[in-house]
Amino acid sequence: MHSLLRQIADYLLAQKNAAAVKPSAIGADLLPHLFVLDVERDPAKPGVKLRIRLIGTAIDQIFRRPLKGRFLEEFIHGPRADQVIEAFHHCAETHEPLWLRQVVHLKDGPPRFVEGVVVYLGPDRVYGGLVVGDGSLQSAHASFEREVISRGS
Questions:
Q1: In 3D, which of 61, 51, 140, 131 has the Cα closest to residue 104?
Q2: Which of 3, 37, 74, 147 is least surrounded by CB atoms within 10 angstroms?
Q3: What is the pLDDT of residues 83-102, one digit of tens each?
Q4: pTM of the shown model
Q5: Residue range of the domain that includes 108
Q6: Is residue 115 part of a domain?
Q7: DSSP label at 106?
Q8: Is 22 within a domain?
Q9: Is 113:132 a contact under the CB 8 Å cutoff?
Q10: Number of domains the chain contains
């Protein structure tokens, strides 16, 4: 796990609920990589939708557009998009914290990895962090991994 994500995950896993999260305690170097999603439920439909409540500047730069207020499901695309969205929904519905890593191919560039952590904090919020970096030659194919995380893993 990327060291920035480990720090974000450790902080979030130590919180009892969303009200306990204090941005000043997270640290200035981590805040640009942080996101907060509101879990929206429609009693007439199964599942959830995830609306972006807050998103760090590093993440906005990755996606090259402001995402606050939009649904996560609107902008996640690519060959593994369904797996990524399902992982976020899994966290929101089961409250199981996850580490995610995807290798993606961007136009006119080498493979890159997108790595993140997602942690549910009640009432109905998903917090997490996201980083992007260069892919390695060993990860030339698009891929997706996910694992349950816990303190110190």
A1: 140
A2: 3
A3: 999 999 999 999 999 999 99
A4: 0.89
A5: 3-13+32-148
A6: yes
A7: -
A8: no
A9: yes
A10: 1
pLDDT digit string (tens) for 46-73? 889 999 999 998 888 877 778 899 999 8
The dihedral sign for the CA sequence 30, 99, 20, 92: positive
Evaluate whether residue 153 is within a structural domain. Answer: no
Instruction: Tell me if 101 is assigned to some domain.
Output: yes
- The amino acid occupying position 24 is S
Whole-number Cα distances in Å, 70 to 12, 54, 62, 83? 23, 10, 16, 19
Q: Distance from CA of residue 110 to its chain's centroid?
A: 22
CATH, residue 130: 3.30.450.20
| Backbone angles phi and psi of 94, in degrees to 5 | -105, -15
pLDDT at 146: 95
Both tokens of 142, joined, read: 């698009």
Of 50, 65, 48, 55, nearest to 130 by C-alpha is 55
Cα 63 to Cα 6, 39, 76, 125, 153: the distances in Å are 22, 21, 10, 22, 28
- Sheet of 34-41: strands edge to edge? 48-55, 34-41, 125-134, 111-121, 98-105, 143-148
